[in-house]
Design brief:
By secondary structure, the chain is an alpha/beta fold. It has five helices and six strands; from the N terminus they run E-E-E-H-H-E-H-E-H-E-H. The strands form two sheets. Strands 2-1-3 form a three-stranded antiparallel beta sheet, with no helix packed on it. It has a three-stranded parallel beta sheet with strand order 5-4-6. The protein is globular. It starts with a strand and ends with a helix.
Length: about 190
């Protein structure tokens, strides 16, 4: 039986979840890293992420050309030969190491192959990203940029644009609860 939406506190450093706010994460020891997030609860209190219908694994066909080549050989090699459509890839690393630059290059190259790409930034302004794109000589008419931190607004824009590819830079900046509170205030 599916219950209504619930809120959990999630450590932004390691992902530990707890029903109440904690000052220090018991897993990673980080202080003040918990953010309240909306989650849809399924049976036994576990998040519900089931998509589609169950199918026997033997019935799933594999296309030999399944992976999208980005044109960045080391990146493709790291992903086992390219990006698998429908997959989610989490890029991590220290601040300033080049994650945003790498992802901008990847989506720009894939958008030049005819894919419509949406790059959501919750940390940088459109001008900062454009400066990076200019430095990298990126020209891609199928690459769209959206800035903000409201996951619901992102979903609305995705419905409008229907991108083939989405980059969220960075996922910990997206806050569903804050967006819901803002929306409630706007509706008054």
């Amino acid at each position: 039986m599916t219950k209504g939406p619930k809120f959990l506190f999630v450590c932004q450093s390691c992902g530990h979840q707890t029903p109440k706010w904690l000052g220090r994460c018991p897993d990673c020891g980080q202080w003040n890293s918990f953010v309240e997030e909306l989650t849809q609860q399924g049976t036994k209190g576990l998040p519900s992420f089931v998509m589609g219908q169950p199918q026997p694994i033997d019935s799933i066909s594999l296309d030999p050309e399944l992976r999208l080549k980005t044109g960045l050989p080391e990146f493709d090699r790291t992903l086992g030969g390219g990006v698998v459509p429908g997959s989610m890839v989490l890029i991590g690393g220290d601040p300033g190491i080049g994650k945003s630059t790498l992802l901008l290059q990847v989506v720009a190259r894939l958008s030049k192959e005819g894919l419509k790409a949406l790059y959501l930034s919750g940390e940088e302004s459109p001008q900062q990203i454009k400066i990076r794109a200019e430095r990298l000589s990126i020209r891609a008419e199928n690459l769209f940029l959206l800035t903000g931190t409201c996951i619901e607004h992102l979903f609305e824009r995705m419905d409008e644009l229907q991108p083939n590819l989405l980059v969220v830079d960075s996922i910990q900046t997206c806050t569903p609860r804050l967006c819901l509170l803002r929306r409630a205030a706007w509706d008054r």
